[in-house]
C-alpha cells in the first residue's frame, strides 16, 4: 500500500468521524474501508447503525481466518471427536462428550452450565443381513433408531421390492409375511426421508414382517445410512434397517427378472428406559440487557457410526468458537450471547423441545436463535426466518460478511432445534454452506474428520460470530 493512499485514508477517516460522530478504529483494508466509510455518512437509521460495525466485523474475521484463531475450531473438533468418538443418545460416549465440552468451555473462560433432560436410550446390538436366494450375498445394514430387534433366530423371509408407497399399496396382497425392500429413488432429503421415517409402519399395515430401506443419499460406495424412524401408534412394530443404494438396486433388478429373493435378517436392537442427559450452555453475559439473548447452537449427540464430525460436531464447534473469538477480542455485547449444545437432536430434537418448554415463558427476551446443522463447509449465505422488518436489519448485517464473500440473505432459517422458537415468531437463522456432499456422509461410517476442512470451519466461525455479536449489540432487538 503506497503511503499516499494511507494518508488519504487517514484524512477520510478523520473527516467521517467529524461528520458522523461515529467512532471506529482504522483497519488493515484501507481502500474498501474508506469507500464504505464515505458511504456510511449518507446512510441513515439501521443501515448506518449496522455499518458502524464494519470494523469490528473485520477484526473478528481477521482473527478467525488469518490470525491466532486460524484452524482452531477444526483442531478443537478433531481433538473432541478423536477422543470421544460417536455420541448416540443414551450412550456413555454422549455423557463423556458433554463432560468434555463442559470442561473445555469452562477452561476457555466462558460462563457454562448444564440443563438436565431425559432422553431415549436405543441400542443397536449386533445386526446382519444376508441374501440367501437367488444367491448368497451379505448385505451391509444399519438398523434404524427406535427399531425393534428380530427374534434371536432372526427373520428369514421372501422379499417384495417396491419403488414407492403407491406401489406398496397396489401390491399390498403380495406383502403378507414378506420382508419389504423399499428401492425409492432419491429426490431430496426432505422428500425421500419419508421412506426411512414411515416405511416400517406402512409395510406392517399390509402384513410385512420386516423392512429394508434404501439409504437416503444421492451417492453411495456401498454405505448404509441410519437415522430415526417412527412407529405409528396401533400398528405392529416390525424390525427396520437401511441397506445400501447398490443392494436395493440389485434386489430390484433381480425381482424385475421374476426371480425369488430370500433374505435372512438378524437384529438385536432394543429400547431401554430413558436416561438423564444435559443441554450444555455457555454464555457471554450482556452488559446492558443480560436477560435478552442471542442463541448460537449445534447438537452434541450424533449417530453411533463414523465420528459425528460433520453431523453435528462442526455446528457445535463453531457455536463455541464464535464465543471464543468475541471473548478473545475483549468484546462485550449489550445482550447475552448463549451457545447451546443440544442433546438428543437425532431422536427428534428431544433436548431442544425440553429447553423450549422450560424457557418459553421468556420468549419475548429471545432476540435471535441460530443453528448450524447442515455441515460446516464453505459458507455461501445466511438463511433467515423473521418479519420483513427483521429481514431489513439482517440484510444489513450480512453485508458485514463481505470480506468472506457471504453477503446473501436467504429465506427459511432452519434447524430441528430452533424450530419451536421460530414457530412462535422468534427470528431464526442458519448457515447455508456448500453442502452438496452433506448427504453422502450423513448418518454413515463416512461422517469423520476427513470430511472437515479447517479453512471452511474458520469462515463458518467468523460468519457465526459476526452475526451473533452484531445482533446482540444493536440498540434494539430484532423486530418481530
Ligand atoms: C456505496 O453505496 C452504493 C449505493 O448504495 C453502493 O452501490 C456501493 O457498492 C457502496 N460502496 C461501498 C464501498 O460500500
Ligand atoms: C491450518 O491448516 C492448514 C490445512 O491443514 C495448514 O496448511 C496451515 O498450515 C494451518 N495453519 C495454521 C496457522 O495452523
Ligand atoms: C427468565 O428471565 C428472567 C429474567 O428476566 C430470569 O430471572 C429467569 O431465570 C428466566 N427464566 C428462564 C427459565 O430462563
Ligand atoms: C472472496 O472472493 C474474492 C474474489 O473472488 C477472492 O479473491 C477472495 O479470496 C475470497 N475471500 C475468501 C475469504 O474466500
Ligand atoms: Zn444433525
Automatic annotation (TrEMBL):
GO terms for cellular component: endoplasmic reticulum; extracellular space; Golgi apparatus; lysosome. Residues 279-465 form the Peptidase M28 domain. GO terms for molecular function: carboxypeptidase activity; metal ion binding; metallodipeptidase activity. Gene3D superfamilies: 3.50.30.30, Zn peptidases (3.40.630.10). Residues 1-20 form the signal peptide. The keyword Zinc applies. Keywords: Carboxypeptidase, Endoplasmic reticulum, Glycoprotein, Golgi apparatus, Hydrolase, Lysosome, Metal-binding, Metalloprotease, Protease, Secreted, Signal, Zinc, Zymogen. The keyword Transit peptide does not apply. One of its GO terms (biological process) is peptide catabolic process. It is found in: Endoplasmic reticulum; Golgi apparatus; Lysosome; Secreted. PANTHER family: CARBOXYPEPTIDASE Q, PROTEASE FAMILY M28 PLASMA GLUTAMATE CARBOXYPEPTIDASE-RELATED. Homodimer. The monomeric form is inactive while the homodimer is active. Belongs to the peptidase M28 family. This is Carboxypeptidase Q. It comes from Oryzias latipes (Japanese rice fish). The gene is CPQ.
Amino acid at each position: 500500500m503506497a503511503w499516499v493512499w494511507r494518508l488519504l485514508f487517514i484524512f477520510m477517516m478523520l473527516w467521517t468521524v467529524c461528520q458522523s460522530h461515529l467512532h471506529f478504529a482504522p483497519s488493515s483494508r484501507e481502500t474498501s474501508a474508506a469507500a464504505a466509510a464515505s458511504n456510511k455518512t449518507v446512510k441513515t437509521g439501521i443501515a448506518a447503525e449496522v455499518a458502524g460495525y464494519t470494523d469490528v466485523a473485520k477484526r473478528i474475521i481477521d482473527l478467525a481466518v488469518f490470525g491466532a484463531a486460524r484452524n482452531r475450531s477444526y483442531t478443537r473438533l478433531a481433538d473432541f471427536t478423536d477422543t470421544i468418538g460417536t455420541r448416540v443418545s443414551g450412550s456413555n460416549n454422549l455423557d463423556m462428550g458433554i463432560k468434555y465440552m463442559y470442561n473445555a468451555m469452562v477452561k476457555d473462560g466462558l460462563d457454562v452450565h448444564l440443563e438436565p433432560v431425559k432422553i431415549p436410550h436405543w441400542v443397536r446390538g449386533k445386526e446382519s443381513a444376508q441374501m440367501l436366494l437367488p444367491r448368497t450375498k451379505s448385505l451391509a445394514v444399519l438398523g434404524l433408531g427406535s427399531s425393534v430387534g428380530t427374534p434371536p433366530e432372526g427373520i428369514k423371509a421372501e422379499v417384495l421390492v417396491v419403488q414407492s408407497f403407491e406401489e406398496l399399496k397396489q401390491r399390498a396382497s403380495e406383502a403378507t409375511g414378506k420382508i419389504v425392500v423399499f428401492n425409492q429413488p432419491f429426490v431430496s432429503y426432505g422428500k425421500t426421508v419419508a421412506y426411512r421415517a414411515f416405511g416400517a409402519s406402512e409395510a406392517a399395515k399390509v402384513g410385512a414382517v420386516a423392512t429394508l430401506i434404501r439409504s437416503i443419499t444421492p451417492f453411495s460406495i456401498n454405505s448404509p445410512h441410519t437415522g430415526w424412524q417412527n412407529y405409528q401408534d396401533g400398528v405392529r412394530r416390525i424390525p427396520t434397517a437401511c441397506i445400501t443404494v447398490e443392494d436395493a438396486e440389485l434386489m430390484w433388478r433381480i425381482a424385475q427378472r421374476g426371480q425369488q429373493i430370500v433374505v435372512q435378517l438378524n437384529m438385536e436392537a432394543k429400547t431401554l428406559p430413558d436416561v438423564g442427559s444435559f443441554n450444555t450452555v455457555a454464555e457471554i453475559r450482556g452488559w446492558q440487557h443480560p436477560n435478552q439473548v442471542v442463541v448460537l447452537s449445534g447438537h452434541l449427540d450424533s449417530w453411533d457410526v463414523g465420528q459425528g464430525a460433520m453431523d453435528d460436531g462442526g455446528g457445535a464447534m463453531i457455536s463455541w468458537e464464535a464465543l471464543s473469538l468475541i471473548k478473545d477480542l475483549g468484546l462485550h455485547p449489550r445482550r447475552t450471547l448463549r451457545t447451546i449444545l443440544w442433546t438428543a437432536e437425532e431422536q427428534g430434537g428431544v433436548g431442544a423441545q425440553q429447553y423450549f418448554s422450560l424457557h418459553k415463558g421468556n420468549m419475548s427476551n429471545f432476540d435471535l436463535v441460530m443453528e448450524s446443522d447442515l455441515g460446516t463447509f464453505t459458507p455461501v449465505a445466511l438463511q433467515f426466518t423473521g418479519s420483513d422488518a427483521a429481514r431489513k436489519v439482517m440484510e444489513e448485517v450480512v453485508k458485514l460478511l463481505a470480506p468472506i464473500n457471504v453477503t446473501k440473505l436467504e429465506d427459511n432459517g432452519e434447524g430441528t432445534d430452533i424450530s419451536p422458537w421460530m414457530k412462535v415468531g422468534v427470528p431464526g437463522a442458519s448457515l447455508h454452506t456448500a453442502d452438496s456432499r452433506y448427504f453422502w456422509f450423513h448418518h454413515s461410517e463416512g461422517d469423520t474428520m476427513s470430511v472437515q476442512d479447517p479453512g471452511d470451519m474458520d469462515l463458518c466461525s467468523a460468519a457465526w460470530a459476526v452475526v451473533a455479536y452484531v445482533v446482540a449489540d444493536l440498540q434494539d432487538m430484532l423486530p418481530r
